[in-house]
Structure prediction request, 153 residues.
Amino acid sequence: MWHKFNMIRNYFLWACKVVLGLVLVIRFVQAALEGSAIRHSGWFQLIVCLGAGIHIWHYFILKAETGKMHQPEVLVTNRGLYRWIRHPMYLGDLIVVSGFAIALSRIDWMIAITCGLVILGQGVVEDRLMAASFADSFEHWKADTKRILPFVW
Prediction:
């Protein structure tokens, strides 16, 4: 029962992340069309590309190792950033959201912070799902890695 509850919670958090991300993109496009100055546009581009690159790189690692994204049968632990963190795609998402926070107004920071908290929540829920699916191998991997932020959390 808890596994199913965590699956539903994970899908809910994913939907929240998508909606908040779309709001950030819409706010960015709106600011650009209005001629508002996009703050730190060079940094914005660099940070967003870095975050998207990390996400896409680890998507392909996961896809190549497991053959599917949802409910994989294999725990990927030794390629890319998976050696140090359990959720490198969420790290990429956090970096992208940070890029938008840098470029947009202070009011949009609240949207970015909320989106960041949702992403962190996804990591917590997904850890529970992996612990239920992979038991001993997950616990061993968990002891050697951080959740999302290398060397921090």
Observations:
- The chain has four helices and no strands.
- The CA atoms of residues 127 and 147 lie 8 Å apart.
- Residues 10-35+46-144 form one domain.
- The chain has a mean pLDDT of 85.
